[in-house]
Design goal:
4 strands; 7 helices; Muramoyl-pentapeptide Carboxypeptidase, domain 2; alpha+beta; 184 residues; single chain; four-stranded antiparallel beta sheet
Amino acid sequence: MRRLNEVSDSEIEDFLGKGWLTHDGMWFYHTYLDSGMDKANRVNREAIRSLAAVEMTRARKVLEVADEDLRTFEGLQAFMSDALEMILPESVLSRAEFTFVSPNVFHWEWEDGDCFAYKAMKQLGVIDEYVCGVMFRIECWLEHLGVPYTVEPAIEKCIMHETGRCRGDFTIYFEGASLRSDPL
């Protein structure tokens, strides 16, 4: 048996992050059982929108990010990379790829079948009705930060369930940026 002082900081961070995600999944599941899938999806997205504002305010404070830092591709890239690493457990983050493609595209791609929400909703038997909250959370981050964007594909249901893959692009609209309209 190991004692707590023998457990690495990264293992503790991952444990706490997974606990948060499990709590999130459990309230979703119990809302679904109590009130149905439509209400669970709606309340989930409302909660994500509220959470995103708090998360981004806290992340900006911890990372000492000023408004002007978010108005360049390099600044937004650094902040989003650090925020994702700070908020998501490594065991989850390692299953997704978030890349910044100059001059203004933020690309995401989950390993096939490996999104934690996809696996959980599939296990619950509600994947056909699940409205993705994972990528919606990043949309809400951008909205709270005041960063204009478009997303392709639109995040409505579970993209992995509908297409077999979860990947897409947030196109960020910076002043003077050479805007890209086609997804990668």
